[in-house]
Amino acid sequence: MPVPQSAIPAYAVGALCITGGVTGYLRTRSIPSIVAGIGVGVLYIWSAEQIKRGAPNGIEGALGASALLLVSSLPRLTKGPVPVILALASAGAGAYYGKTLYDLRNHAHVHT
Q1: Domain extent for 18
Q2: 0.85 exceeded by the pTM?
């Protein structure tokens, strides 16, 4: 079972996504920015809550949100610092949750 501290990156990146989506909307009136920012941010926050409670699918949700954010950020890397920050945050979170999931699955196989 994942430890509650492993929810911290998902909370952080979720807050970053929501803040970025709202900021993008306020600056440019971009509907895709607010929809994507809030959508991915909520997925991260939901995942963090699942992880914190020890409920199923939290790690997988955070890993999926990381992949979604990374894939959507990569084509926009040349458009300024925000896509770069989002790509780096999603890559870091994805690496963390990928390793966490890998370790959990391998640990479960060792003791079963």
Answers
A1: 4-110
A2: yes
User: Which of 56, 104, 1, 17 has its CA nearest to residue 9?
Assistant: 17
User: What CA–CA distance (Å, rounded) separates 61 from 47?
Assistant: 5
Q: Are 48 and 62 in contact (CB under 8 A)?
A: yes
Is residue 81 within 8 A of residue 53, CB to CB? The reply is no
Residues 2-32 pLDDT 10s = 566 789 999 999 999 999 899 889 999 999 9
- Total of domains in the chain: 1
Q: Hey, what are 98's tokens?
A: 């990928």
Nearest CA-CA partner of 96 in 15, 39, 11, 33: 11
CA distance 48 to 15: 11
Give the whole-angstrom CA distance, residue 49 versus residue 46. Answer: 5
Max Cα separation, the chain? 53
CA 45 – CA 32 distance, rounded (Å): 19
